[in-house]
Task: inverse folding
């Protein structure tokens, strides 16, 4: 369940940050807590 397209939640959060320069409200927290970054 953790694997989504071969990326960990932390990798997905980092990709959200690198694409837009900001972290979206619904992105996972980059600290790895698996909570949404709000």
Result:
């Amino acid at each position: 369940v953790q694997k989504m397209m071969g990326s960990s939640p932390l990798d997905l959060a980092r990709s959200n940050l690198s694409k837009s320069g900001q972290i979206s409200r619904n992105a996972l927290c980059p600290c790895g807590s698996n909570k949404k970054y709000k």
